[in-house]
Structures are given as C-alpha cells and as structure tokens.
Design goal:
Blueprint (H helix, E strand, L loop, with lengths): L1 H7 L8 H12 L10 H11 L20 H9 L6 H5 L3 H6 L3 H12 L5 H6 L4 H9 L7 E5 L8 E3 L23 H13 L9 H14 L8 E4 L13 E6 L5 E9 L2 E6 L11 E10 L5 H4 L2 H31 L5 H31 L5 E2 L7 E2 L7 E2 L1 E11 L3 E14 L2 E6 L4 E7 L12 H13 L3
Helix pairs in contact: 4-7, 7-9
Length: 472
C-alpha cells in the first residue's frame, strides 16, 4: 500500500483509489481479465483531451504520476536504478509503455556500466538498449571490472568491458591496432622507446639487456591461457593524505610498473599490480609511516646524501624503540599476575609519561606537517642517488619515513629497508631507497575505471591478502 500510495499520489489516510478499483474488478470480472485496468488512465486522457473542452492547467495540481507529461516521466524513470525498473513496469500498462523508451535504458547503461560508445552501433543493428542492459550488462556484471593476469612475476592489469553477448576473450582479435608491419623486431624497438625512452643500441649493460628482453617476452605472450584475479580500487576518505589509486612508477632497469596506493590508518601502502623478477606483482613495495613526518634540511644540505641518510636513520631508530617498548608493555600485561600489579604500575609510570610525551611530539609533528601541506619547499635529489627520470618536481609538500622492499633475483632474501616518501602534489610522489641509493617517481594513472569499486573495506583488504599470497 505504501508503494502504491507514492505512485498514485495519495496518502494512506485517503486510501488508494487505483488498488481499490483493481480489487473490485478482480471480484466481479472474469478470471482472465487484465489485472491493472486502465480506467484511471482513460479518465486522465479524457481530461487531457478535454472531451471537447481543454482543461485549465492551473485549476489543480496533478494528483498522480500518470498525469505528468510522458517526457517528464522518462526523465524520472531514467534516474532510477535499472534493477528497480522491472518492478515499476508491473504497476500499470502506461508505465510499461514508457519504460520501453530506449532513452531510459541508454542512461542506465552509461551511468551504471560506463557503456555509451558502442550503444549506437548496437541500436543500428536493431538491438535495444533495454536488451543490452538486461541480457548483457546486468547478466555478466560479475566479470566486469579490473583483473590481474598471472604472467609470472610481472602481473598486469586487465579492464573487462563487455560489448557483445555470450562472448569474453583475452586474446586480441584486432592485431592490426598494435602489430607492426616490421614484425616482432619493430614491435620490440617501439616498446623499448616507450618503456625506457632509449634504443637498443644505447643499452650496453648485459644484465639490463637480459631483464628487458625477459619482460618483453613475458608480457607479449597474451595468446596463452592465463589465470585472472579480481582487483578493486582502494576506498578513499577525507582524511587521506592524497587520493588513493593506481600510479605508474619507475624501477630502474625493470622499467615502468603499476603500484596501487592505499591508506590504512596511520600507514599508507604501495602494492605492486605489475612486478619484476626481484619483487613480483602482489608484493607491498613501499610502506609509509604517516605518524612520523620528516623535515628536510635546506637545499644545500639536502644535496649531501649522508645528511639525508642521518635524518632518516634517526627516525628509524625512534620507530624501532617505540615498537620495542610497545612489545614489552604487551608482554608485561600478559605475563604479570595480580600480586605484581601494583609494582608494575609504579614501574610503568615513567614509561607512561614518556609515551604521553612521545605521542604529544608525534601528534605535534603530524599537525605541523599537515599545516605546512598547502606550502611547498625546494627539493633536489642528493648527489649519488640514481633516478631513471631526471624530470622530477623541484618542489615538494611533505615527507614521511617509510620502508621499501628489496630482494634478490627470484624474490630471494626479501627485506624491508628504510627510505623517505616525498609528496610532490596530488598526482605525484616519490620514494628514495637509502640502501640502493635509488629514487622512484610515481605518477597517477588518470583513467576512469568502471565496476572497479570494492563492495566494502573488508573486501578490499581481503583482495590485498589474496594477491600477495600468490607470490609468497
């Protein structure tokens, strides 16, 4: 009754004329009669035509949705979720006729699934947008979105968009779009220029040539049967340092790789979507400690690598002491009995005061870093730090202590080493790996992906665990 009252434009206290008329007709009429009579519609149409005299539009306001112009109903219905429209079509035959309008379903295909360019082609062939939504997009919605192919340690990113019923393929059937007349050799040279910005003749280091050839061979074999894992984009909140998402990062001899930046309380994580033989896809390449901001020295001292290293290692030692103290307190809390409770409280009093001071210093440092966020300071890489991209920003907003994952070939002997996270702007950040004396620059991938949002924070966290477990 409540739903019908909203549709008919009358309140529960006045009753529902339409439902009452339908119930009366079912009692008196034949069993196979139309359940939703159009008597009310005929009355409205009669009034609309005036039955010889046009009604004054200002005489009264419409009491029913059926009295609204069809063009307005198309706009209203088009703003509703597509899954609700079949129920709306069962209200009356007038609604059913309006819901056959392709404009409504074209809008739902565009807003819910991001499909718009191919709809015109389908309409020309006689396929309605309603059929595209009901029989294609909604039916196969579970495979739409982002997926990570299992291509050895390199991973990858696949965006699944359906434009044809009962067909899904990972094999490119339009090779003329990327295959070159010069064959694989020309493809390799073009790929090398795009990936590294250099030609094969410019690369003299034998190990680097081996890595480049290995990556090209792996990533160009998309005709093989692959396994895919679901990828969700990270959820965001107003408190995030910058908008999370996908970033393209530089990794020295390994070339460009895709990293997903996500926020987890006082931590930010960079997870590899594409990887390399040292750190494969799925691993957490960097972790940023947002509770420990770093104040860079002046520009002249910043050029000195030893000075920057000293600052970062001091923060590392502070983090180590805090973690050790927290572990000791947790151990004492579990192991002490009632008889030692008073002594332990007295022993912990100075520690508690130190904790309060440390937390106050930490909060003050974070607050000061946040206050300085709108401003910028000069930035330059220390002498001796290797950067694949020399065109990095010369100013930055904030810096934080962090750790980066390094390992030998084949992901052997992995360990987290200290580094510094540099926030340049809303779309770029960097990371200096102290032990490697290397700098990685990350730039946001500005592509709008449909059907890639995580259904919940728990689902996103579970996805991160799943893709990491494949390489451990």
């Amino acid at each position: 009754m409540a739903v019908c009252a909203r549709l008919c434009g009358v309140g529960p206290s006045r009753g529902c004329r339409r439902r009452g008329a339908q119930r009366e007709q079912r009692r008196e009429g034949p069993a196979d009669s139309e359940p939703d009579t159009d008597a009310e519609e005929e009355r409205i149409e009669g009034a609309r035509l005036g039955q010889g005299q046009a009604p004054d539009p200002a005489a009264r306001a419409p009491l029913s949705l059926l009295e609204l112009p069809p063009e307005l109903l198309v706009q209203i219905f088009g703003s509703l979720p597509g899954t609700d429209l079949p129920s709306l079509a069962r209200v009356c035959s007038a609604f059913r006729r309006i819901l056959r309008t392709d404009t409504i379903w074209r809008r739902r295909c565009r807003e819910e699934y991001g499909v718009c360019e191919n709809l015109r082609k389908l309409e020309i062939t006689g396929v309605s947008c309603r059929d595209v939504y009901a029989k294609l997009l909604h039916r196969y919605r579970l495979i739409l979105g982002l997926w990570q192919p299992d291509i050895g340690p390199y991973g990858g990113l696949l965006n699944v968009v359906i434009v044809k019923k009962d067909e899904f393929s990972t094999k490119c059937n339009q090779t003329d779009h990327h295959r070159m007349s010069g064959g694989r050799q020309e493809e390799f040279r073009t790929w090398l220029r795009e990936e590294w910005g250099r030609t094969l003749e410019d690369i003299f280091h034998e190990h680097m040539q081996e890595l480049i050839l290995m990556k090209f061979i792996y990533t160009s074999q998309y005709d093989n049967c692959l396994t895919y894992r679901r990828i969700y984009l990270p959820p965001s909140s107003a408190d995030d340092l910058l908008k999370p998402g996908l970033f393209k990062g530089t990794y020295g001899s390994h070339g460009l790789e895709i990293v997903m930046l996500s926020f987890h309380g006082k931590k930010a994580k960079g997870t590899k979507i594409t990887g390399d033989p040292n750190i494969p896809a799925g691993q957490q390449t960097v972790e940023i400690d947002l509770a420990h901001p770093i104040q860079l020295p002046d520009i002249e001292n910043l050029r000195n690598f030893n000075e920057l290293s000293r600052i970062v290692l001091e923060v590392q030692e502070q983090v180590r002491r805090e973690q050790q103290q927290q572990e000791e307190e947790e151990g004492q809390g579990e192991g002490e009995g009632r008889s030692r409770q008073g002594d332990s409280q007295q022993a912990e009093q100075p520690v508690q005061r130190d904790d309060a001071g440390a937390e106050g210093t930490e909060a003050a440092g974070a607050a000061a870093a946040q206050e300085s966020a709108p401003t910028s300071q000069p930035f330059v890489l220390p002498v001796g730090v290797i950067s694949r991209n020399e065109d990095y920003p010369r100013t930055c907003r904030m810096c934080f202590y962090g750790t980066g994952l390094i390992a030998g070939h084949g992901f052997t002997s992995p360990e987290r080493t200290p580094g510094i996270f540099i926030l340049f702007d809303d779309d770029r950040f960097g990371f200096i790996w102290l032990e490697l004396k290397s700098f990685s620059l990350y730039s946001r991938i500005k592509v709008s992906f449909q059907n890639a949002s995580a259904p919940s924070r728990e689902a996103f966290d579970e996805m991160l665990k799943n893709i990491q477990s494949m390489t451990t």
